[in-house]
Design a protein that fits this description.
Elements (H helix, E strand, L loop, with lengths): L8 H12 L1 H7 L4 H22 L1 H39 L12
């Protein structure tokens, strides 16, 4: 069975970097080692189930889909206007009769 979501490459890379720095943290100051290890265990084992069970992941997806659909709608509307404008400009450029409203070197 696949989990509901997977961490992305950025999150995986950040976790691997944090895990690889663990000996450095132990070497610098051992009093930070226990909280740092607890933080890594939380990130590695508890964060995903917490996000799924609390519904925060579903809420994040729902909000993200809404924002994405608005962006897509705006982009498609802008692109349609641009295409219509280009078609109209080509109609004027290729016409044999020059429109007096256009500049001379059109």
């Amino acid at each position: 069975m696949r989990p509901e979501f997977e961490y992305g490459p950025l999150a995986k890379g950040a976790f691997i970097a944090l895990a690889s720095v663990t000996p450095v943290v132990l070497f610098i100051d051992y009093t930070y080692f226990i909280p740092y290890l607890a933080f890594l265990l939380f990130l590695g084992l508890l964060l995903r189930p917490l996000l799924v069970k609390s519904g925060l992941y579903a809420l994040w997806n729902k909000l993200g889909i809404g924002v994405q659909s608005k962006w897509d709608e705006k982009y498609l509307e802008r692109r349609a206007k641009e295409i219509d404008k280009n078609v109209e400009m080509e109609k004027y450029r290729r016409s044999r009769v020059r429109d007096p409203r256009l500049p001379k070197n059109w």
